[in-house]
Amino acid sequence: MSAQVIDGRACARELKENLSADVFCLRQDGLTIGLATILVGDEYGSAAYERRLRRLAEELGVPYQPHPLPAGTSQNDLIALVERLNGDPAVSGILVLRPLPAHIDESAVFRAIDPRKDIEAVHPENAGLLALGVPRFVPSTAASVFHLLDTWLDSVGEDRADFYHRALIVVVGRSNNVGKPAISLGYERQATVESLDEWADRTTGIGRHTRAADVLIVAAGKAGLIQAEHVSEKAVVIDVGINPRTGADGRVHMVGDVDHASVAPRVRALTPVPGGVGPVTDVWLLRNTVHAARLLAGRPAIGAALALPEPTDSLLEAS
Ligand code: NAD
What we know:
By secondary structure, this protein is α/β, with parallel strands linked by helices. It has 13 helices and eleven strands. α2 links the parallel β2 and β3. The longest helix has 21 residues. Bound molecules: nicotinamide-adenine-dinucleotide. Nicotinamide-adenine-dinucleotide binds next to α9 and α12.
């Protein structure tokens, strides 16, 4: 029997409809919402992501400011732009697309973002709030992973709390932007969480951990890393990886970190690539932009509606 495929596009459509209604009402009500993105250079994946966000912002009626910069832009010039956007009242959310060129220290750039506009929670203040379980913003990819899981649990009639309390969640990949936030959200759901990085793969191998997983979240950026031998029948697999591959026709297409063909017949459910985590992440980034606008205007947050930890604005009030 083949696994259930968790449909990220359907999930994203529903989120988008709700968000669109929210944006319409808030803008009628005079709230300023605006997304600014900064793309340094033209890396394939981030340039594609920027184009998708631009289209989505247009569809949702969210004013959008793209800031494409040449790959040779200096760190000082980049930080100066971030500071200008911090002070721009038309901007509620700032996204600096990764990867940045090697001559730029990304942590210095992230520290320059006003934490109240830091919709991907890359500023240490927001990363710290997330780790403490009181996030101001939940980074969009990790939020999407758990939104897909929650939605799937609802669809199969499993009680979320009961499932997570019993579950072993194994997260493969430990980056600051995907793996670590996913670990924090697993803790928030009172699950047991294991985290693996490439050193586990190089030494003991990842299989002895991944085979025990009830939920396997894979964000390593390695096409085909997870094969049938790495999973068990009970696993719900969320494939975050996006890896460009050139097909026989010379066209570039995306594959995940999970070998869908060998894993799908073995597990309980899994997300496809494309059409899984990606579309939900895009909408969530816009959702965080709206959330930032609400917080900046002192309006109630929207996090609880999607069963994420209630975002905090206590620091906002203090600042
Ligand atoms: P990253 O390179 O910053 O981090 C990768 C992590 O995986 C590191 O912790 C590394 O140690 C670990 N890793 C690498 N090889 C491994 C192996 N063989 N075994 C175990 N761990 C291994 O990447 P990232 O930014 O976290 O992104 C990961 C993947 O997710 C990429 O393919 C990226 O394109 C994709 N991504 C997708 C979305 C989405 O919306 N679907 C969003 C962000 C990133």
